[in-house]
Amino acid sequence: MQIIILPDSTAIGVWAAGHLMRRLADGRLRVLGVATGSSPLPVYDALAQRLPHSGGRNVRADAESDEDARAAASLTAFALDEYVGISPDRPESYHAVIRGEVTEKLGLDPARVHVPDGTAGDLEKACREYEQLIAEAGGVDLQILGIGATGHLGFNEPSSSFSSRTRVKTLAPQTRRDNARFFTSEEQVPLHCVTQGLGTIMEASELLLVAYGEHKAPAVARAVEGPLTSMCPASIIQWHQDAVVLLDEAAASQLEHLDYYRHVQEHDLLPDQD
After folding, report:
1. What are phi and psi of 4, to 5 degrees?
2. Which pTM value belongs to this model?
3. Which of 89, 148, 170, 210 would you call most buried, defined as having the most Cβ atoms within 10 angstroms of its Cβ?
4. In whole angstroms, what is the distance from residue 123 CA to residue 187 CA?
5. To the nearest whole number, what is the mean pLDDT of the chain?
6. Please, which residues have CB within 8 angstroms of residue 239's CB and are 6 or more apart in sequence?
């Protein structure tokens, strides 16, 4: 696990965008796992600035920029989760969030962007079919992740099985409180969701977890330095062969070995940044 500490969320977005662009350029990124919530937004914003034709922009007009735009348009993307019972047309739905913050902003082909179906009549079947779509795409090359206050990844709440697959889950009260800012009241936040399982997430070739702000510090510390336990689902990233954790100073503030992580970052033989 590589831990990188940067000054703020803007710097995190720039670092992540550069990393993603290099993966596109060397052909290692064909299937992207995308997350919702506030954490990934700086990544999508910075990536949009690197993709000249995304969102109707054309910042650069050269062969390299055209190649970048074509590479992005050919990406297949899979979202982590969706609420149960919310129409995809509602702004609170993750279909709508992904459409606005990822598909349109990055200039992706809408037909290649997939979000779990939370309105399916047969949710178990829809979950199986989502797993099959990921498998048919060849698996996720790089999965962007945030982390919840409960330590959840996607909507995998504490006690989630490390081998779990895409399925229906019940949201924790803390998660519903945290997500109430996207609704008019906490009561409107759905109780259930469809989420990729921890086993599904761990099959991605690379994980990129983003966290910033002091309120994320306790969860980050448990995930990075705590025991590997289902009580902190994000701790499973310790077991991944290629995980990068991008933190600002505030989110990193409760890490016991912070000085060592800074030392490693300063003396990295293979720096991956602009």
Report:
1. -120, 125
2. 0.92
3. 210
4. 23
5. 93
6. 202, 228
Q: Tens digits of per-residue pLDDT, 138-186? A: 999 999 999 999 999 999 999 999 999 999 999 999 999 999 999 999 9
CA distance 18 to 62: 18
Under 8 Å between Cβ of 152 and 162: no
Backbone φ and ψ for 248, nearest 5 degrees, come out as: -90, 175
Going through 102-150 in order, the beta strands assigned E by DSSP cover 113-114, 142-145
- pLDDT tens-digit map of 95-131: 999 999 999 999 999 999 999 999 999 999 999 999 9
Token pair for 177: 């409180």
CA dihedral 118, 120, 124, 127 (to 10 degrees): -60
Identify the H or E element spanning 9: helix 9-25
216: its two tokens: 């994320």
